[in-house]
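Pilot study result, target chain (304 residues):
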Amino acid sequence: MKPKKLNQVTDFDIKLLKIFKTVCDCHSFSSAESILGISRSAISLHMSDLENRLGVRLCQRGRAGFALTDEGREILEYIKVLTASIEDFRSKINQMHNHLKGDFNIGIINNLVTMSTAYITNTLAQLAQENSEVVINISMSTVSDIECRVLDNRLHAGAIPQVTPLPGLDYYHLYDENSFLYCGQNHPLFEHLEDISLKDLKKWNAVLPNYVITPEASKLHQLLDCSATASDREGIAFLILTGKFVGFLPDHYARKWVSDGMMRPIFQDDLKYSTPICLITRKSKNPNNILKTFMGILELVKNR
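Predicted structure:
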């Protein structure tokens, strides 16, 4: 397929892009039939037309099944940004009528729901109660993914630990999350914590997060023999519960296992660190009205 330039984006192009996104979401032409209300042969013709207009091969289809090409995956990411921009335009038009209507997209890192200070939960509850035509969309993801999607406007806001602030984002402090070192009930330390000192900790295998952590947290992990890694806090909990590893967890997340006698903290006074949890938004002079309303409710919730 020869490279070509797309000199003008028409309404028909946008229609074809939406059909392509639906097929990708459904992972096949046949599954997309009922959603799009058109036949597989019509979908196939639309895909061929789109490929001709863009000058790239978007997907493989046939007996082997549906699969995106590298170019198709890249185009799909562009479509997501385009869809977010259209939604942002729709939200701004609705603002002209002082009527909240549209999507509110928020990204949250895993395991914040157990935090006793439920600022996000209470704010979303009030937003939903007072604005029945606002559709709340929550996605759970990594810090870097949430940052990227807030920056390119696919997310209106994100709740993440503040480790390395980015210049294109605003940070609103929610609370500080306290983390302690834990061992599981089958670990040799569980019944003998009184018999060891801090210097002895190097004798035991520990878990190192393979995501970005604060310098304070990094310094404490250097006291341990980190022989395993985990991509998130749930993975750390899994390894602690094996009884073969010690690891740091937020106290609100570990609370259930501690109360059930399945974990206990180690050297609570010495081995602890605090991480600020912030709500991030893209720097903008004119945020959409749904986001402004959400931030106003959040301020009231925090001050109650």
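One observation from the pilot: The chain has a mean pLDDT of 89. A full batch analysis is planned for the follow-on phase.
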